[in-house]
C-alpha cells in the first residue's frame, strides 16, 4: 500500500524539540513525532543532553525558516500511545530523519512491530546505517560516552575552592 503524503504550509509549523513538531491542520493543533528516531530531551536534568537537544531543535528550526513546504508521510503505524501523528517529515522534499541521524543529533529507534512490515525496511536499513556512521565518526551525541543509550557528562566532580 503506497504511503500518503500531505503538504503543510511552513507558517503553520512549530518545533517543540528535535523529534516533535506542532502543526495546525484544518484549524486543529496536532503534534507530529518523527518516525524511527529519538533526539535528546530539551528539559533533561543532564545539561549535556539538554544542550544537544537544543542543537537539534535549532537545526530543524533553521531548515524550516529557509523552507517553503513541509510534507509528512505516515508509515504503517499512524499514531503513538500519546496520540501524536507518527510520520516521515520532509522540508522541500528533504527527509529530516536522515539529516538528524547523519549529524549525530538523533538515534534510531525501531519498534519491533515496524520490523514486520516490508514497506518500512528501506527506512529502517538506511537509518541504522546513518546512525552507525555518525557513531563511528563520533558526531553529535556520539561524541560523548554512552551508558545504556544515555549521554554521560565527562565532568565527574566539581571541586569548590
From TrEMBL:
SMART domains: SNc. InterPro entries: SNase_OB-fold_sf (IPR035437), Staphylococal_nuclease_OB-fold (IPR016071), Thermonucl_AS (IPR002071). SUPFAM superfamilies: Staphylococcal nuclease. Keywords: Endonuclease, Hydrolase, Nuclease. Pfam families: SNase. It comes from the Bacteria. Transmembrane segments: none annotated. One of its GO terms (molecular function) is nucleic acid binding. It comes from Thermoactinomyces mirandus. This is Thermonuclease family protein. The keyword Isomerase does not apply. Residues 6-144 form the TNase-like domain. The keyword Glycosyltransferase does not apply.
